[in-house]
Amino acid sequence: MITIFSATLNEDWQQIINLIYETDPYIYSAMCDNDYTYFEQVMKDCLFQNSIFSYKNIHLAKENDKIVGLLLSFTKNNQLPCQNNIIFRQCFTDTLLNYFSGLVNKLKPDVLYINNLCVDKSYRNKGIGSMLLKYLKDSQLESSLLLDCLVDNKDAIRLYEKCGFIKGQEFEGFAGNSSDTVRCVEFVLEGGKNKWTK
Fold first, then answer.
1. Taking a C-beta distance cutoff of 8 angstroms, is the pair 190, 163 a contact?
2. What average pLDDT does the structure give for the chain?
3. How many Å apart are CA 64 and CA 15, to the nearest integer?
4. Nearest Cα to 58, choosing from 100, 5, 22, 110?
5. Residue 103 class from Cβ within 10 Å (0-12 exposed, 13-18 middle, 19+ buried)?
6. 2-76+86-189: what CATH class?
């Protein structure tokens, strides 16, 4: 049986960091210049700050003790991570400034930005993504939900449309250290009386 809940201090951070890394083929590889060991070290520090990567912003799907899905969202009130126990490499700082800073700045106070929605490959097509989105929506009734998705990620687009998100504009996305041209599309799910507007 799958259970959905908010992350606590006692989670398996290795599984969580791995799911975050797998969510996007461009952003996280750019943050660590394809060095997963460095990504793991710096994220272990960021998870315990009041940052966009705080464990307090993470919702999990579990089957028994295995984390099978993850949703990470943040608001305008969350800060970019700061150097604490780990020295940030230039690639990490550049990604924070060139990508995440723009996301935080574009948010209105009543908007939650869904930064990561990831389901373990062996657990996909079982409704876990929908369960995570419903959990977030039900816990944040007055907030609108905003996310960006790669245009060629057809499975994710079907999921968001099925869950009531409205497709917005397409735009050139962040390609990190890749020479690819990345196209993204915005999705929004309006909240209660405080509506998100472009």
1. no
2. 92
3. 14
4. 5
5. middle
6. alpha beta
Q: What angle do CA 178, 81, 109 make, to 5 degrees?
A: 100
Strands (E) in the chain, as ranges, are 2-6, 58-63, 66-74, 111-119, 144-150, 166-172, 183-189
pLDDT tens-digit readout, 39-67: 999 999 999 999 999 999 999 999 998 99
For the chain, domain boundaries: 2-76+86-189
Contact predicate 119/69, CB 8 Å: yes
Task: Single out the residue of 91, 102, 99, 96 nearest to residue 81, CA to CA.
Answer: 96
State the amino acid at position 146 in one-letter form: L
pLDDT in tens, 69-109: 999 999 999 999 998 878 899 999 999 999 999 999 989 99
pLDDT score recorded for residue 198: 36
